[in-house]
């Protein structure tokens, strides 16, 4: 497997939440991605761009449009998106719609996306806390994005799901095939 | 990608080393794999077998023969091996030789292996210590073993190498393509 | 210094908060005190009682009365209280009032308290998260409670303050002498 | 308790050992004291001096003489020494001998030491590893050094021992009163 450059788009989510010790709330500061890649001794050719730093429950249609647009314009054919788990499936669907092409988008827009492998991942517990699944998920998602053919996927719980065959089970906090 | 069961063979290595606080030495006790899979919220169908708990510099030809044999006899088509990094490439070669078939092995033995995807991984720093790459590597290797076609691979530094195109650079502590 | 038994009263606070990965909120489950004492290889003769598990901003006068009462009735002369930092000073004052004796309490009640060394401590970041000051504060508070003469103290930031000469600076998140 | 400045002398020991991921050995680099004080949100007035970075089993009489000398010349009346646990008691005895005054030292030298509170502490597991008692011990030792009257003490396992009434039990890895 020849190594290809990977683009990482950071959008926030539990992954990057931190604890504000002055008021006891959770908030976003900077992404932990560079630190996590160092810890993993990653030698993948990775470029990281922070698109937004938000809870995915607060992600708007405009935010999703921006993610789709950035994936379309990225030079890399392999893209990893860190994302809150609550609406990860929704963003994956928006990407797949653009990727496959649908009636709502112009051909000019869709043309730039096909052929890309896009993997979304996140975390159930912030990386900055003990007991986070973040580092495991990052290693997992970076591997799937390198190994899989073009398409939009969700990598959680060590597994990889096609964007349209997965949902988050809010009772168990895990992703399941549908 | 339909989930397939994964067999994990534990052989020791830095991955599972622990600190003996009574004499300040490093030693092996039990594998941390189950704990790490819990932390990663893994929902992969995994069976773990500890074959040995040794430093890979002390691995003998008989040890390697046993690893090859266990991989051959495993019912699972997807196998992950945790292994010390120092001789990981050597064991991968032993597996590939059996997988592809060579003059030293009888056809009966080689027949049982072909078709399997075998990924070896390890860690530069014990999981039990801070700053370990273990959890990242485990997430990475488990993903590659699910995604890649039959063959023998080494998953380290977020990358995946064909068994015969990799070596460990002892100066940098990283794996490189050759 | 002869070792004396120490009674620990757990009341909650940031110290023992955990992250609920299903809804992203912070909550209380069990105290981490036993685990922390194991980590510290503590050989102090300690008895732990959980009186309540609450955020100290929600602590009522009745809650404080209970803490005072339990300290009064404890057989141990050395008492450590884990407590949220926001109203730690208020609870210390309630204890000191009872310790010194005031018009609102009957002599029978006050008699049981004098002579006790009571230290309150807490944490700015939950023990369960990375970057917590909890283990440092626990080691500090347990030492002060063994070493200091009778009185009510607050142990935070490596220092020990008399109950009536301290306040929490909410801008810096540290305790300061007044 | 008025805060007094504390001098910390670093001598190495398990406390500050690190894992060399290139060869799997343990070694010394820089002390973790400043990082640990930050983690503990310490507001103690502390000055840190690294005297040596050695395993206490390799500590020579000359090394001990230097520690005694530095303690004698320190302007601070409260001194914390981080030290390997194996010969911590021996160094404490050397300090106490100098503190109390003995035939081998001139009055001029001994005069500078009396009145100082000196606490030695260490760790059973390196701070850089998971499961270290280091942060707990540091919080404990810093508190004892502020609270206790002049003398030489060993702070381990949450307790504080007079220098001449303690030994390390090598079977249990804990310090015990004798």
Describe it for me?
By secondary structure, chain A is of the alpha/beta class. Chain A is 29% helix and 29% strand. In chain A, the strands form 3 sheets. A 6-stranded mixed sheet of chain A has the order 4-1-5-6-7-8, sandwiched between helices. A two-stranded antiparallel sheet of chain A has the order 2-3. The two termini of chain A are 30 Å apart. The interface between A and B is large, with 39 and 39 residues.
Distinct helical segment count of chain A: 5
Strand content of chain A: 25-35%
Q: What share of residues of chain A is helical? A: 25-40%
Biggest interface and which pair forms it? A-B, 39 and 39 residues
This entry's quaternary arrangement is homotetramer
Uncertain runs of chain A: 102-113
Let me know the average pLDDT of chain A.
Answer: 91
Strand order in the sheet with the most strands of chain A: 4-1-5-6-7-8
Q: How widely separated are the two ends of chain A?
A: 30 Å
Order of helices and strands of chain A: EEEHEHEHHEHEEEE
Got a strand count of chain A? 10
Shape category of chain A: globular
The secondary-structure class of chain A comes to alpha/beta
């Amino acid at each position: 497997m020849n190594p290809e450059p990977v683009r990482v788009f950071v959008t926030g989510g539990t992954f990057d939440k931190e604890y504000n010790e002055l008021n006891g709330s959770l908030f976003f500061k900077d992404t932990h991605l560079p630190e996590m890649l160092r810890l993993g001794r990653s030698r993948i050719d990775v470029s990281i761009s922070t698109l937004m730093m938000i809870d995915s429950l607060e992600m708007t249609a405009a935010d999703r449009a921006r993610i789709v647009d950035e994936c379309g314009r990225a030079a890399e054919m392999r893209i990893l998106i860190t994302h809150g788990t609550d609406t990860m499936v929704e963003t994956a669907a928006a990407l797949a719609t653009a990727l496959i092409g649908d009636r709502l988008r112009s051909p000019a827009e869709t043309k730039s996306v096909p052929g890309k492998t896009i993997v979304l991942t996140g975390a159930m517990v912030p990386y900055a806390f003990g007991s986070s699944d973040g580092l495991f998920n990052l290693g997992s998602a970076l591997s799937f994005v390198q190994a899989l053919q073009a398409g939009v996927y969700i990598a959680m719980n060590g597994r990889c799901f096609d964007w349209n065959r997965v949902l988050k089970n809010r009772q168990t906090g895990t992703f399941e095939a549908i």
